[in-house]
Amino acid sequence: MFASAGYSVCIFEINESLVQAGIGRIRGNLNTMQKDSLTRGPLTTEEAMGNVRGTIDLREALHGAIYAQESTMESEVFKKDIFTKIDLLADSETVLASSTSTIPASLFTEKLKNRGRCLVVHPINPPLYLTLTEIIPAPWTEESAVEKAVQIMKNIGQTPVRLHKEVLGFAVNRLQYALLAESWRLVKDGVLEAEDVDLVMSEGLGPRYAFQGPLHTMHLNALGIEDYCTRYAAGLRRVLADFGPNPTFEEPEVIEKISSSMQKRVTDHTAALDERKANLARLAKLKKE
Ligand SMILES: NC(=O)c1ccc[n+]([C@@H]2O[C@H](COP(=O)([O-])OP(=O)(O)OC[C@H]3O[C@@H](n4cnc5c(N)ncnc54)[C@H](O)[C@@H]3O)[C@@H](O)[C@H]2O)c1
């Protein structure tokens, strides 16, 4: 996406074959974006590839960079280690972003000399088709670094959403987990079959929220948000008070129910992922229009 938007990109990996594999995947993604008319700038695949190189030397990868996006394994220990290395080698202006989905930057950047330019910039999978990117500064992240990250995300066609403070799970997973908890309870309590939970989303709430979020929807579902609250607040409270405790997500009988439903619905995992990508590509095109 960076290359597609015209940025010069250097990827760093731990060995030469992974560098080459990464570059191959970038080419594949650029071709896909071109085919789907979803490129993030005016460049063709070949032009964008002219801006992409790779290295196994972290110093070289960081040299002269305005922005670094760390996307290594999801582990606090590992993030601490890689950010310590990046901190030693980074130029004095580089914004140092982590893709981490769950680990606040304050847990792995506190001791770094460049901590004022460290933050989380969390994309959503698959980012070629879902443009949301959560931006979560640590308490010590400088405003200028946040603004730079926001601007770069806009420049590559992403939709940055900034959190004002660190919170466990950030925004995406907090909302996602709330939905997963109730989906789980509905199956566990025998209210819905697993496939019907998915239909409630895919044929109802999912498309409804694809263009307007839940608060926007509240506003439109009555004569404005004040009217919605006057009419429905008591009902909301009654239903919310009826929710059971949080699931452990380890209850074998629920896992078994969901798993047997999924075995019927997904016979080829890779094909199902490809189908999801194709559908999201169509939706992304529609949203772009
Ligand atoms: N996969 C997703 O859907 C997704 C979405 C958003 C954010 N993220 C976040 O992105 C990060 C990476 O996730 P992933 O699923 O791609 O993980 P992954 O395990 O598939 O990939 C990790 C990559 O890090 C490389 N690596 C290993 N050791 C390294 C080192 N010492 N230095 C540099 N690179 C090294 C590996 O070769 C590999 O390419 C995680 O923090 C994850 O939370 C993932």
UniProtKB/TrEMBL annotation:
* Keywords assigned: Oxidoreductase
Q: Which residues form the 3-hydroxyacyl-CoA dehydrogenase C-terminal domain?
A: 169-222
The record, for InterPro entries, names:
3-OHacyl-CoA_DH_CS, 3-OHacyl-CoA_DH_NAD-bd, 3HC_DH_C, 6-PGluconate_DH-like_C_sf, 6PGD_dom2, NAD(P)-bd_dom_sf
Query: Where does the record place the 3-hydroxyacyl-CoA dehydrogenase NAD binding domain?
Result: 1-166
Q: Name one GO molecular function term.
A: NAD+ binding
Q: Does the keyword Cytoplasm apply?
A: no
Swiss-Prot/TrEMBL GO biological process terms: fatty acid metabolic process
Asked whether the UniProt record includes Acetylation among its keywords, one would answer no
So what family is this one in?
Answer: Belongs to the 3-hydroxyacyl-CoA dehydrogenase family.
User: What is this protein's name?
Assistant: 3-hydroxyacyl-CoA dehydrogenase
Q: Tell me what organism the protein belongs to.
A: Mesorhabditis belari
Taxonomic lineage per UniProt?
A: Eukaryota, Metazoa, Ecdysozoa, Nematoda, Chromadorea
